[in-house]
Amino acid sequence: MTDTLTIARTEEHTVAPRPPRRRRRGARRSWEEPPTAAGEAAKGVTLGGVLLVVLVPLWIVVVTSLSTQGSVNRAGGLVIWPDELTFAAYRVMLEDGTVRTALLVSLGITAVGTLVSMVVSVLCAYGLSRSRSFAHRFLLTLLIVTMFVNGGLIPTFLVVTGLGGYGQWWSLVLPSAVSVFNILILRAFYSSTSADLVEAARIDGAGDWRILWSIVLPTSRAVTAVIALFYGVGYWNSFFNVMLYLPTDSEKWPLQYVLYTYVSRGNGMPGSVNQGFGDALSQTAPLSLQMAVVVLTLVPLLIVYPFVQKHFRTGVLTGAIKG
Amino acid sequence: MTALRPALRPARRNWRVRLRRDRSLVLMALPAVLLLLVFNYVPLFGLVTAFQEYDPLSGVSGSAWVGLHQFERLFGDPLFWSAVRNTLYLSFVQLVLFFPVPVALALLLNSVLSDRIRNFIQSVVYLPHFFSWVLAITIFQQMLGGAGVLNQFLRSHDIGTWDVMTNPDTFALLVTSQVIWKEAGWGIIVFLAALAAINTDLYEAAAADGAGRWRRLWHITLPGLRGVIVLMLVLRLGNALTVGFEQFLIQRYAVGHDTADVLDTFAFYYGIATNDYSYGAAAGLFKSIISLLLIWGANKLAHAFGEDGLYRA
């Protein structure tokens, strides 16, 4: 992963040099006081503590998921220092129907949902980004109103079930497919960043579809990636909608709901997962297996995160300032 | 809200001509608008169920009208008032304990000179924002719960056990620390941007006039953050009745509904889970109306402080 990261970094530098920063980093200004030892130490301890609070739990979860039952027993629960390592939990988990199905369901919902959301949002953001176009202010107001006023939980539930969404996967996608906030971020980019290029293309006779596809999208890759991550994370993490619309169809559950049912609530997993750990009668799944489910919900996020992370500031700030 | 700023007056042309000219733009906007109409605007009309005795078999048109009956039930229901109390209390605790954390963290991070260290810390602290609540709470359970790391340690040293996850008395602190763990890192992003926008010449001039680092913090940095801080406060106050829904849904069974029911979970448990749809809709409508008033009031407050707030009407 480090290799690919470095490549991504260098590419970024060669393709688009960063704009000069307001404040040169890495150097102390001449007028600044020299740092005091106590101050620097306090700063280091605080920031180090912040890092540990985030990283240590993740470390423990990962190590426990990779530990043998013996090493879990010796530790009396979660394993902090790796002792005997094994991939047994992952092997058992990916053989067992429940978790494997849930993983596939989650990946499917995330892929389809993100695609639907991105297509709809990018089109809408571009469609509303040309000032003076027909009805764009009316449509924009229509969008923004929903940020302040909504029917709330029960009327929405009644509409979705009324349309036959109960027990259907689409009820996890369509009701939450449009995030007005995300559309406003995209729109802010589209209406500002490429205005000159768009005008030039229009004079050259390019239509709106063409402009969107060959000018606007390529010049706003960063914000597109950030918004896609926001949508993707939303679908990957969807939990309540499952509770609402698919509470009984356990074979349709995505991973988060499996995590909730079998790890958070500590219900026993169906099937024969416990046999892999020599304890077929146990009510709850073995700890390493539970932690492996936790890790599994983390992995896709950790794969995508490094590539998108560096663009956060652009994405979020446009939203915060122009939204 | 520059989005609402009136654009330059369009050349007044026949609307048919303009529609034909912009038909692809309108077409592009349509799918999103349709989805919003179906899943956001139609439910608005569904709010009339709050004034009915909704029967799933008869639908909205066939259900009996009962006027304000559901609201009378609601206001006479001690469980509802307990949910209101919990919501306000948790919201207040979060405002006091959570709100200053991202500001402080941003100031601290901004003072780190090394680019590489700063970027690394940022990547790490943003991460939990992308975790689901199920994941975050599972991690808390494994660290602080009855069978978690903390109690493993306490037991092995014979200090006894201390189960934070199921203790109603410390629930407010628990959920606030969860929110801090998950969201405080992400929260610094806007403050870092505001810090980067402060003109460095101001610091240099102040230093030349003999202002030390604390005076510079007080007279330059904090005033520079004022606009963002007020905006964030307005958003927080406007959302005072929303304190995190899934977070309470997931932990309700561990601490009991007396402690963990907030307005949103109330609408779910006493509306959908019991098929008492009209009752839940009434609770939801009550929350929406108060929330709108709060947003309006918070925005007025921001204007009183001379800030833009959320919108300028």
Automatic annotation (TrEMBL), chain A:
Transmembrane ranges, per UniProt, are 45-66, 102-126, 138-163, 169-190, 211-236, 287-308
InterPro entries the UniProt entry points to: MetI-like (IPR000515), MetI-like_sf (IPR035906)
Which protein family is it in? Belongs to the binding-protein-dependent transport system permease family.
Please list the residue ranges annotated as the ABC transmembrane type-1 domain: 103-308
- Sequence segments annotated as region (Disordered): 1-38
Sorted keywords for this record are: Cell membrane, Membrane, Transmembrane, Transmembrane helix, Transport
Provide the protein's localization.
Cell membrane
Query: Does this entry carry the keyword Flavoprotein?
Result: no
Q: Which SUPFAM superfamilies match?
A: MetI-like
Biased composition annotated in UniProt, kind: Basic residues: 19-28
Which protein, by its recorded name, is this? Answer: Putative aldouronate transport system permease protein
Which is an annotated Pfam family here? BPD_transp_1
A GO CC term assigned to this protein in UniProt? plasma membrane
The organism's place on the tree of life at top rank: Bacteria
Biological processes, Gene Ontology terms: transmembrane transport
Principal place of residence:
membrane
PANTHER family in the record, alphabetically? ABC TRANSPORTER PERMEASE PROTEIN MG189-RELATED-RELATED, POLYGALACTURONAN_RHAMNOGALACTURONAN TRANSPORT SYSTEM PERMEASE PROTEIN YTCP
Topologically, how does it sit relative to the membrane?
Multi-pass membrane protein
TrEMBL record, chain B:
Task: State the source organism's domain of life.
Answer: Bacteria
Keyword Metal-binding listed = no
Q: What is the topology of this protein in the membrane according to its UniProt annotation?
A: Multi-pass membrane protein
Task: Name the keywords, alphabetized.
Answer: Cell membrane, Membrane, Transmembrane, Transmembrane helix, Transport
Q: Which InterPro entries does the protein's record reference?
A: MetI-like, MetI-like_sf, UgpAE/MalFG_permease
PROSITE patterns in UniProt: ABC_TM1
GO BP annotations listed? transmembrane transport
**Protein localization:** Cell membrane
- Which residues does the UniProt record annotate as the domain ABC transmembrane type-1? 84-298
Report TM segments. 25-51, 88-112, 124-144, 184-205, 277-296
Question: Can you name a GO cellular component term?
Answer: plasma membrane
What family is it from? Belongs to the binding-protein-dependent transport system permease family.
Its protein name is Putative aldouronate transport system permease protein
